[in-house]
Amino acid sequence: MLNKFLLPSVFVLLLLKIVALNFTTFNLFGDEAQYWLWSKDIDFGYFSKPPFLSWIIRVYTEILGSSFLSLKLLPLFVYLLIAWSIYNLLINSGLSKKDSFAGCLIFLFLPAVSFSSFIISTDLFLLLFWTLSLNELIKINNEQRLKNFILLGIFLGLGFLSKYAAIYFVICLFVLILLDKKFRKIFLDNLLGFSFTFLSVFIIIVPNIIWNFNNDWITLQHTSDNANFANIEIDLIRGLLFLLIQVLMLGPFIVLGGLFGFNKQNYIQKIFLIFSLPIILIVLIEAIIVRANANWAAPALISLFALLYIRINNSFLKMANFIFNFTACFILFTMIGMSYPSKIFDRISGINDYALKIYNNSSNGVVKNIVVSDRLLFSSLNFELRDMNINFYMPHKEGEKITNHFKIVSPLSKNINENFILIGSPSDINYLNNNYKLLKINSPDQKFMKRKLEVYEVILE
Question: Which of 107, 111, 106, 104 shows the shortest CA–CA distance to 84?
């Protein structure tokens, strides 16, 4: 009975999402604006992320433009591709076409998918290529063909270009080889095939490796800083909260139904477990000893969903899962369409109004240069004022540590000879050679930022 509701419900939610995006007054989050801004300067790497998402945004915006609605539709398109990949994964795992189609539709109702389909992130293409890679691995488990080894390498390489968390796939693959006698034999009997896999990965990621080499491995430095193991503080509550969020992202009823249906004799389930549990454990440990964002374990949710969906066989739990996930998605996008004034939306509220007030706040009515010390605000202002012909700069004294990409590509020169608006602290520009005076401007509301930044007009003397 549930299956007949799935496809109409998907269309209802897709329509609701499009309507909500059209009517909301919310803005792009700073990271989303950053990826858009990176796409204007195509390169083989960026400060904190590999380049694939920015490449796609560049192609996408050249065709469909850079409006808020257009950009926000991109995640929807990608998740439809991921759902199609889930369909193929389930078929190759032994399910019927009917059950596999139902599974890919149920995937679209996951709270994690509902939430992340509103966000432009590097997780989008990581999840797509993770699913495609896992699908090829299942095919290799069933039949060892050279084409599948090469496709595995291509998809895994593109996964690395999407997000470096693709390294989890390699970790899980070696865990599978170590723990499973059957797959270890497949690996040892097909060393040439797996050599083609890793050669394909290397060929695809070598331009990004060269970029990192030419930029002093700055991405690795950022990753190390992000891990922040120098500030270890054990917190078990933080770990339990991380696990709870993972359950909610999948939906509590599919987790409940799938766990009780687990059969250790099912070989495909074993592969899915190995391609999820190590990731969850790694991020859980990091959550306990330092911190961890919920999406750091995102690839594990693909394998977990496939595992749990195969095992759930309780009709009541299936219906409860559908109702819970559909309701969560419906509420989320209704709130977005209404621009509901909730704290969870503060970071995407009022950015456009702030940008326009900054633009109109110069004493002579003309703003040609804006200097911003915050990475996210720098990105957001670039996007919101993209049609205003403004030069944006980031304060950076030569020789100091680089903390974001804009200090590389848009540093404020110490010899600047034009007036500008400064959003930050006067100490940010104390390295300038020219004399200047500061006129403090009333700062517009900044509820979208945790730390309020002061605004100054800087007039060169």
Answer: 104
